[in-house]
Amino acid sequence: MRIAVSGAHCVGKSTLIDAFLSVHPEYAHEPEPYTVMVEDYGEEFSAEPCVEDFHRQLEFNIERLGRHAPGENVIYERCPIDFIAYMDVLDPNNIAPLLEPISRHLDLIIYLPIEQDDDDNAEYPKLRKAVDRRLSAILLDDDLAIVNIPVIEARGSTARRLEILETAIAT
After folding, report:
1. Which pTM does this prediction carry?
2. How far apart (Å, rounded) are the C-alpha atoms in residues 61 and 65?
């Protein structure tokens, strides 16, 4: 199963993926594009979030998605919709050519929303909240009509989110 964990920055994607991989070593892990691009390829990004940087990450993410065939067990930290949401928040005129259904790349999206009790010490808190709202509209309300696979919203502690993910892959 090809699973993407989606959400704005600092919502616990890495933490959930680490917990999942500790009980599912049979899954390959595709880390956050930003991390791979910086640490493995030495790329540099702007000091402030910008559409161009998110577009580069989107392209990288799509290329990585294409490396895994249907039926492979892989968990991705982020999916194309994450980057579309960031770009749409920063400049709504930039996303039109990027819209396409994602079912050929993924089987399931686990969406981690910002929790109400989250301490907002994350970088760019206004951007984080705006992206969370946009992701919710795209993923849960199918606002852009590009979500054609199951999306499961996972709230609560890491243990609770892992339980939700486990239930989703068992069905």
Report:
1. 0.93
2. 6
Tell me the pLDDT tens digit for each residue of 72-108.
999 999 999 999 999 999 998 766 555 566 667 899 9
CA distance 167 to 171: 7
Question: What is the rounded CA–CA span in Å between residue 156 and residue 114?
Answer: 10
List, for residues 123-168, the tens digit of each pLDDT value.
899 999 999 999 999 999 988 888 889 999 999 999 999 999 999 9
What's the chain's length in residues?
Answer: 171
- The pair of structure tokens assigned to 100 is 């396409």
Q: CA–CA separation, 66 vs 59, rounded Å?
A: 11
Place of tokens 């030495």: 42
Distance of CA 132 to the CA centre of its chain: 11
What is the gyration radius of the CA atoms in the chain, in angstroms? 15
CA distance 43 to 37: 6
